[in-house]
């Protein structure tokens, strides 16, 4: 059996793993990142939309080689067909080619000094005296043992690492948004706007999205959280109205109940989808994942240098990520619970109200008057306040 020793081992090599590896190796510790697939970033399980602040967090300038479309705003379609246009703000950003972006991010980590092994699936954690101190992995049929001071679990929604280390992870089906997405050719949409469609018949407890990638290519997907019909059923129903052809199908789940209770233990940190670092309303995980993964990489490196990789030291990671994104994620989880209870009628009247306002400057009085006239919305609002 091959035996290796690193300061930090990162499990999973997409946005969470590569960001952790990049910032840990920038802090001058030895890093090994392990990825079970043969190609980093493939298959894509993402609509590929990001906000610009993702790149500020990464301290990287976005590169044309992975930018597919520059987004100025979004069109939000209510169940009755009413369309609200939203310009700039949180809707402004980029649609990426994640197959290129994810590999590029892993390359940045490698350029900073991280070692990477693909086609290497981590099967087990090495735990001694209740402390995680490495992993056992399979690489092309060979078993390898990698000792490490800190393991960073960036193994996504299918995460086993956190559970193996004794942490409670998100598992119930109601906490997962089930998604299906086609990349399609011949989609007739504005290349600079995201499209969102809501309604019980379109996507129960979720939405349909069209994220343009230029030249008539777009990611057309649906995410739902309702038992019964599959997301593919709703997707096929939606795309039957488009004169477009699929060239790729992706199926995946998004954890939308907010972060797990505890994201560290002795010798281990959890980041990204594995930790529930996903906005519960939008299902967007790239930015919160990258923010938390940068902190994980930095704290892991500091703990190695301070020769203290105990849970007591590593708890700094959770303190720091909560300071950056904790409030936003918990607020969003509250709003999602409210959104879950909105009927098509509520959404239509909300759209009617917003349609006649300047979104950026809706007055409190106008909003209160509107809610007052809609008893269901008033009830939901009092529940979350
Ligand atoms: C359909 C869909 C659309 C989405 N659209 C958007 C969007 O437009 N914008 C946005 O911000 N977010 C979006 N998200 C969410 C976003 O994709 C994720 O939040 C983000 O990719 C999480 O990154 P991660 O690195 O934590 O996990 P992942 O991307 O899941 O990566 C985990 C990696 O770990 C590897 N791995 C797993 N187990 C092991 C093991 N035992 N050993 C070695 N390797 C292992 C996997 O192969 C994988 O490469 C979407 C998600 C879905 C499903």
Automatic annotation (TrEMBL):
GO cellular component: membrane
GO annotation terms (biological process): glycerophospholipid biosynthetic process; membrane lipid biosynthetic process
Cofactor mode of binding and number, as noted: Binds 1 FAD per subunit.
Pathway: Membrane lipid metabolism; glycerophospholipid metabolism
Domain spans labelled Digeranylgeranylglycerophospholipid reductase catalytic: 176-242
First-level EC class: oxidoreductase
Remaining remarks: Reduction reaction proceeds via syn addition of hydrogen for double bonds.
Protein name, entry field: Digeranylgeranylglycerophospholipid reductase
Organism: Methanobacterium lacus (strain AL-21)
Record lineage: Archaea, Methanobacteriati, Methanobacteriota, Methanomada group, Methanobacteria
